[in-house]
Fold this sequence. Notes:
Layout: H1 7-13, H2 29-32, H3 62-79, H4 83-101, H5 105-113, H6 115-142
Amino acid sequence: SPLYHNMAEDTAAMPSAPTLKRSTSSSSGSASAGMPSVLPLARGPSTGGSTRQYDWHLFLTIEERQAVRKKIKQAYTSSCKSYEDLLETVVAIEEELLHISTPSRLDYFKSGCQYDRRVVEKRKQLEGELALGEEEETALAKKPKL
């Protein structure tokens, strides 16, 4: 399935996790007693992850994103029987995502107040993609066959 396309290759390209290193110095009491000291892993301040971060978004293919969008569309189609159900569900999910993703209370309210812009921009983008697709279909239909 496109969702799991080349996962082995993608994970092989990811940087490896940091490893614990043994200290060979005998500066600590446990090292002199035959127990090597272990250096702690360095952690990021807010994520709790390793300091060698990578952007996982870079490892997604267009096909994987399209497959996820298709699954989302299927979920809405099968669960929302009316426009009102759809609107209520989408609004609740979007607000939850906004609540989770904004770093501060001010950003939460600012993003919420400017949400109309985001919707208008996304509609323009989607309409442009639809228009582009129609132009390509028209051009292919008009192209003389050899």
